[in-house]
Write a structure and sequence with these properties.
The chain is an alpha/beta fold and about 250 residues long. It folds into 2 domains: about 110 residues, Periplasmic binding protein-like II (D-Maltodextrin-Binding Protein, domain 2); about 100 residues, 3-Layer(aba) Sandwich (D-Maltodextrin-Binding Protein, domain 2). Helices cover about 45% and strands about 20% of the residues. It contains 10 helices and 10 strands. A 5-stranded mixed sheet has the order 2-1-3-10-4. It has a 5-stranded mixed sheet with strand order 7-6-8-5-9. Helix 2 crosses helix 9. The chain is elongated. It starts with a helix and ends in a 5-residue tail after the last helix. The relative contact order is 0.20.
């Protein structure tokens, strides 16, 4: 009887030990809205490999940087441009910055639209055939500022803009029919499926050097995710999604 009890205890001990292990606290990560599709699979793979856990908050980079400056507990921020990373570094000494991708823009229109390119967009706006052109809000979204630069470089003025809080919302305006056209992130546009996608020449806007920021007190798990994003597997995923090399 004692022998059977001993065997049972030996068999159950590993299970009890695992059950007693503390569940790791999730690492708060802020990410630009253009990463909604490419980032979650990388996070899931990192969780499986390391046992870490992450909570993702997607939004406009400018708003997330301001939240971090105001004390939001983000340990890692994946921003849509380097200027905002520099702003955060100036406000919070000791952060680490790494470029991880270069953003691309695209013109998106409904499948039946007569607009085929930026020249067609310009003509349609001049003729009053565009009720709303969707872009992210340039005040705090780097993709919105880049879209506005594209309009200027293309000689498009008087565009009836509707501003999304971030680039994902700007795309949603087009896919829902609330806007006749939009200038949004190419990776999101490629995956939308319900729009015609016209990639925009990167020479028409300042480069979107997407940069991650590791906060000074970041846990090793935050650094592990940063390494996954900038490592070979993460970079291959970004290229496949439509981002360019940083």
């Amino acid at each position: 009887m004692l022998r059977r009890l001993f065997i049972l205890l030996v068999w159950c001990w590993p299970l009890a030990a695992r059950a007693a292990e503390p569940v790791p606290e999730p690492v708060p990560v802020a990410a630009a809205a253009d990463l909604r599709l490419v980032l979650p699979p990388l996070v899931a793979a990192t969780e499986r490999r390391t046992g870490a856990r992450y909570t993702l908050s997607f939004g406009s980079s400018g708003q997330m940087v301001q939240q971090a400056i105001n004390g939001a507990p983000f340990q890692l921020l994946l921003l849509a441009d380097s200027a905002l990373a520099d702003r955060l570094a100036a406000a919070v000494p000791g952060v680490v910055r790494r470029p991880y991708a270069r953003g691309r823009l695209a013109l998106v229109v409904p499948p039946g639209s007569a607009i085929r390119d930026l020249a067609g967009l310009k003509a349609a706006i001049a003729a009053g055939r565009v009720r709303h052109l969707a872009i992210a809000n340039p005040a705090h979204a780097p993709y919105g500022a880049a879209a506005r630069a594209v309009l200027t470089a293309s000689g498009i003025s008087g565009a009836p803009l509707v501003l999304g809080d971030n680039v994902a919302q700007a795309l949603a305006f087009v896919t829902s029919g609330a806007a006749d056209a939009g200038i949004v992130a190419l990776p999101l546009a490629k995956a939308a499926g319900a729009v015609r996608v016209v990639p925009i020449n990167p020479a028409l806007h300042p480069p979107l050097v997407q940069t991650l920021v590791i906060m000074p007190r970041a846990a090793p798990a935050a650094r592990a995710l940063a390494d996954a994003v900038t490592g070979p597997g993460g970079q291959a995923a970004f290229r496949a999604a439509g981002f360019a090399k940083p």
